[in-house]
Amino acid sequence: MDMQLYFRDNFFNAGYTEILNADQERAGHLDLKSVFGSSLDVSDENGLVCSGKFRMLTNRWDVTAADGTHLGVLRARFSFFSKKYEYDTGSRGIYDVSAPAFSQEYDVTDGSGRVVVSFRRTSGWFSSGAFVLDNQSEYLDTYELVAVVMGVHAINKRRNAASSSSS
Length: 167
Description:
With 167 residues, the protein is mostly beta strands. The chain has one helix at 142-165; strands spanning 3-8, 15-21, 26-32, 40-44, 47-54, 61-65, 70-77, 82-88, 94-100, 105-109, 115-122, 130-135.
């Protein structure tokens, strides 16, 4: 299953933004819940697919299905010369999410080291964060991956805020 989606954050981290397919047609939307938090809902054209939010008092990003079942958890991994994350989906496997240090292009690899998903931050829309996602995985839903990408973005924003406040 090869599917490409385009989506973005809002400058104020709140409200609805469209998800577009490769033909620039509406394929769903993101509901960025609050200016004061990072939780979000991801919907396709038929309704809510999944949600993402930080676990209480942690830097772990939980992804849950519309019915509340747990899909996976994203966490940052320590690395000096690259950006590394791990997405643990339980029985579906653990996926590594990584990008070179100054790059905005990420690869998601499965347990055998095969790249199954790629996404990158684009500069085509607004500076608040626009992304293109290319899913070639047979086990990970594309809309679930939108929540994962937004989780990576939220973790990066938290890191940047923490490092700028400590300066």
